[in-house]
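Help: why these numbers?

___
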Amino acid sequence: MTENPGLGNDFFKDYKVYLDFEDSKIYLVGYSKSVEEKVFNSFGLSYIVKDSSLKINTIIKGSSADKNQLKINYEILEIDYLTVSSEIKDNPCIFLKEIFNEKETILVKYKTPEGTKGSVVLKKEKLL
């Protein structure tokens, strides 16, 4: 059996991979800390630009985001006093990478679909 010379998991193991479907680009960001530390420590949420807003699209059960009762479709207004501007909405991976990767706690200001505003402090936790 011949070995497949294509790219696989081994190639990508040291990178976070961001897919930008709108601009047809792939971003590879190398881990600055150990891979184990990057992969398993998380605030427990992810985000997406939807309806011209930065919205929560994933909550991991048992995470800091879950314990603080954040929900999918909540709009993120501010992260660590950084207001979500159109510049950030256009390229959230690049602007928020440092905050999500390097900080151990973050302040998130949000708005529910009903219009109620709130804020929570999220702590990075080892989830797996």
User: Anything to note?
Assistant: The CA atoms of residues 51 and 110 lie 15 Å apart. Strands lie at 15-20, 25-30, 41-42, 45-50, 53-59, 75-79, 82-83, 105-111, 117-123, 125-126. The radius of gyration is 16 Å.
